[in-house]
Amino acid sequence: MPRMRNRLIAAARRSMLQRGELYRRLDVAKEALRPSALVDRGKYRIGEKVDDAAHAVRQEVRDNRWPIAIAAAAGALWLLREPIKEHAPKLTRKIQDLANEVADHFRAPDEAADEDEIETLEEDDHEAVR
């Protein structure tokens, strides 16, 4: 009889331990299925995906700086195409006038020197012929 009694006591202990483990698992499952826990888990997973995507984008930008910069400049110009169409002719006229003024400024003294050299050369040629 004592053997049987010991077995029953051991079985009751195992049963209590299993029951306690099942209750702990049930509590964990209840906590995991609470709406706030589900929202938190969803936020975490979305945050991880966003972080992974941000890392991939950062790496692509590092690897392709020039093409991205060119594309960004082209996009900005495309967004500003209407104001550019309005103001570009005025700006080009102003730049052209400024370039002509600078060219005239540098051309005026040079032309006088060129004319003197031409006359000097012509006089030298006449003297050589004489």
Distance between the termini: 155 Å
What summary fits the major beta sheet?
A: none
Shape: rod-shaped
Q: SS-based structural class?
A: mainly alpha
Strand content is under 5%
- Helix count equals 4
Along the chain, the helix and strand elements come as HHHH
Q: How many β strands by DSSP?
A: 0
Radius of gyration: 45 Å
Q: Helix coverage percent of residues?
A: over 70%
The stretches of 5 or more residues where confidence is low (pLDDT under 50) are: none
- Determine the mean pLDDT: 86
Give the secondary structure arrangement, pairings included:
Elements: H1 2-32, H2 35-63, H3 65-79, H4 81-129
Architecture overview:
The mean pLDDT is 86. The protein contains four helices and no strands. The longest helix has 49 residues, at 81-129. It is mostly helical. The chain is rod-shaped, with a radius of gyration of 45 Å.
